[in-house]
Please model this.
Amino acid sequence: MNEILSNEEIDTLLDMFRAGAGEDEVPVAAPKLETVVDDRISEVDLLKPNRLAREQLRGMERYFESAGKLLSATISDKLRIDTRCDCVAVEQQRFGTWLEQLPGPVAIYVCKMEPFRTPVLLTASTSLLYGAVDRILGGSGRVSRVPKDFTQAEYTVADALMGPCLDRIVESLEDVIPLKWQIENRFCNPSMAQILPSQDVVLSVYFQVAGEFLIGDLRLLVPFQSIEPYLDKFAKDSVTRMEPGTMREQVARTVKSVPLDLAVELGNARITLRQLLDLQQGDVIPLDTRFGSPAVVPVMGRPKFLGQIGRIGNRLGVQVADVIGA
Model:
């Protein structure tokens, strides 16, 4: 007997099962399964990256917020208009997701940043970059139509802005990662930016730029494999990980160099507005302070010391006699 069923025999058996039970067979009702609701069960996106800890992200946000302030000053200086640049998001994504969310059209810069082994991408809205090119060349910066791509000459002018922007980003990270950048390529076609596999995790930094008539964004992409060796430094430098009193000496040094206004009050007097208007050169105003009484020495407008008025050479001076409230 052949133990292997033919295709026809398999189809016949399947048809029998589809037809159901025979006339002499009593169908057995399948047991009703009760739906179990468990609040502990939730959907999980297995493709969502989770490589960076919360402390590491917070540390990075602090550094890139500092970069945003530096970029504000640099862009304002280069374009000669008041411009604000804010870091609005620092997140981890899949590279394919980042490409899909990339708003178009954009100018994409492929940069080599030593000691990173993988290229870094910096993008700029073409509306922002084209307006900046027009502004650098002496125009108003107000553009009504933006080209889909830039000429080599336009890219050369745009480098006058993008280069200093890269300098500021590198400068903001120099305490953690000393970087040296070099532009390797520029283009406006996102399909040419496939520097990584789509599933690779990347760090995405989003800067929003707004000026009088310019608006757009800058986006920085750093592969996770490049920044992974430095993650502990970001977490260590995060304010949330500092022990109480860690910054005491640094704050004390900073506060000690803050300039303060110090004055000396010889006394006070109360007169009417008519008396004030009638004052002439040579008039004497009596004070409520007796001769020989210590003068009040306010610091930043608040009384702090009592002192005796004296002379130091050809200049007046005050000798501290007591500390008020000490």
